[in-house]
Input
Amino acid sequence: MATTDPIAILLAQNRWATRNLLETCSSLPAAQFHQRFDMGPGSLHDTVTHILGAMRGWGDLLAGREQRPRLEGTERTPDELLQMLDELADDLEASARTHPVDEEVTGSRGERTYTFTRGGVLTHVLTHGMHHRAQCLNMLRQMGVEELPASAVVEWILMEDGATVS
Output
């Protein structure tokens, strides 16, 4: 049966699309994975690291944990990032299942304190990834990669969630 809960759809699609992107990146030479572009965080490596860093930071807030150090600034291979993806996606899914989406969470950044609903945090972090994956698709296109990884929600629905086409 097809998934109907929007948060469950976004969680599954976020993991799937980021995995597809990283699997495409794993076939690139390291120089291309780190090639600089004038968009987003600046390279495939830095952009995917930023996506995972956001998942980790917001996941820490949702889990009620102390914020762990940022991921940005450390070089990792696509395979290392793939391993991190599973851990971080599992963590977000666990928080989404464990707590009601209308419950509030409070966190600080710098000298400011913010209070959000859990549903708002989940919506932000999952659409944030979509925004940056689009930048990665553009980078791959500029490198001449012909077969771009599937990433859209409708692609996930058609390829992974059992939608039917007549």
